[in-house]
Amino acid sequence: MTQLNPLTVAVQMDPMEGINIKGDSTFHIMLAARARGHRLYHYLAPDLTYRDGRVLAKAHPVKVQKVEGDHYAFGEPELLDLGRDVDVVLMRQDPPFDLSYITATHLLERVQPETLVVNDPASVRNAPEKLFVLDYARFMPPTMITRDLAEVRSFLAEHGEIVVKPLYGNAGNAVFHVGQSGANLSALVELFNASWVEPFMVQAFIPGVAQGDKRIVLVDGEVAGAINRIPGAGEIRSNLAVGGSAARTELTDRELEICAAMGPELKRRGLLFVGIDVIGGEWLTEINVTSPTGIVSIDAFNGTDTGGMIWDAIDARLAARVAA
């Protein structure tokens, strides 16, 4: 599709009524789109339909405004052909990264030749946060992926303290710190193996997490900004969704090195909006590509416009398509 100005944008995300407009990154991007005059549609992943070779979505035209309790207004639903009727699809629903999520990537991949999908759905599918990060193991704390209790015991004996977390979790859910005694370790492994069919991730505990877990946002491979997320009292988890607080921060030389190492690959894969997590200024723990957050706080602390940067990058991608 030829680039339009303004653009027609379909946003695949969570229900509008449930979002927190003070911190929701998708809403922030939608406000930036509105400021540029783009036409917005909203739909949920279950609203996708494949029929006769086309991918359709029953979507509501939506207007957004930064007014608590009155932040959106829907028009009458329309059946959109995502390949013909839309310039850009934003895939922004929250995980879990399960078969439903993977199916949505397969469907959206079919519209990608006609319509720009951000982030690239095939790359999202092939880069789950806690597995893609293994490509950059040289920047990570000691890490193991397993279902084997004996292996976890051996890892704990080697590193003294560990963190255990689900491979496809999000927002800090089900993240456990296990001390040197290993109390309840066998019960924890039993719980993980009973709750998930996948193996789980085990990492050496980094004491520096008490000083914060830095979220760094990259837009088309370039650093857009960062915040330091500080755990609440009695917590090791710093996610804002579980009570962490945000603070202004600068990047260390090591963090800049990490970003420089992965930036070109993110750009090549079409992972236009990515959030990485770094502990203690040096330890990379995750690369978030499904529905990264943090840009509202980053812009508040730094006076930046990350939503605008994202639309600039989208415009550049669309222009490159037209030129090709």
UniProtKB/TrEMBL annotation:
Signal peptide (residue range): none
GO terms for MF: ATP binding; glutathione synthase activity; metal ion binding
Alphabetic keyword roster: ATP-binding, Glutathione biosynthesis, Ligase, Magnesium, Manganese, Metal-binding, Nucleotide-binding
Cofactor dependency: Mg(2+); Mn(2+)
Enzyme class: ligase
Domain named ATP-grasp: residues: 130-315
UniProt entry tagged with the keyword Metal-binding: yes
Pathway: Sulfur metabolism; glutathione biosynthesis; glutathione from L-cysteine and L-glutamate: step 2/2
Gene Ontology cellular component annotations, sorted alphabetically: cytoplasm
Reactions it catalyzes: gamma-L-glutamyl-L-cysteine + glycine + ATP = glutathione + ADP + phosphate + H(+)
InterPro entries linked: ATP-grasp, ATP_grasp_subdomain_1, Glut_synth_pro, GSHS_ATP-bd, GSHS_N, PreATP-grasp_dom_sf
EC number(s) from the headed UniProt entry: 6.3.2.3
Keyword Metal-binding: yes
Family annotation (NCBIfam families): glut_syn (TIGR01380), PRK05246.1 (NF003573)
PANTHER family, sorted: GLUTATHIONE SYNTHETASE, RIBOSOMAL PROTEIN S6 MODIFICATION PROTEIN
Family designation: Belongs to the prokaryotic GSH synthase family.
Protein name from the UniProt record: Glutathione synthetase
Encoding gene (name): gshB
